[in-house]
Amino acid sequence: AQKVTQAQTEISVVEKEDVTLDCVYETRDTTYYLFWYKQPPSGELVFLIRRNSFDEQNEISGRYSWNFQKSTSSFNFTITASQVVDSAVYFCALSRGSGGSARQLTFGSGTQLTVLP
Amino acid sequence: ETGVTQTPRHLVMGMTNKKSLKCEQHLGHNAMYWYKQSAKKPLELMFVYSLEERVENNSVPSRFSPECPNSSHLFLHLHTLQPEDSALYLCASSRSGTRDYEQYFGPGTRLTVT
After folding, report:
1. Residues A76-93 pLDDT 10s
2. Cβ of A101 and B104 within 8 Å?
3. Residues A72, A21: Cα–Cα separation, whole Å
């Protein structure tokens, strides 16, 4: 069975602070994919990144960066110099790498990030 | 229209009503999904359609009935719902059979059952 744990239910920071959202996953598969999604108050989940289990290189996209460590089964997300517009619920998700034409996502329970002005 | 659209955005219905939620994707994808998001719960996958065939039904009560007439449209037919079915219902789509299969979500339908 697959499982995603986001232990931080809520985080509050002041604008321009850096913040890291934690994600720990469990899977027995050797091939799998990890994702981060952002859900602003409007409700729509916005895709941020996909990572496969064979690529442990960290990724940076603007103020966003992701740290994937297979040794600790973690896929953490850091926002540098946070802004008020970053306020949202952030979800980490996991899918199997094979076995079907449509991949099911297992989501964590989400982290509510509030960035204060 | 671009991306994934859902209608209506808000719906209030009584327990004896019948209504349908509609999802349309404009991304050329061939897999579509229904999720339920309740307060303080992780997103729950309800149904998966790939190439217009249902490939997954995660023990969803029969009062929820999906329909996928083509690869661009997905419906969720609702009847005899319970108050605990009140939630945000999200539709998503993705490519299938390739490596680039991240799911793209619509804005959701906020359903209230009275």
Report:
1. 999 999 999 999 999 999
2. no
3. 15
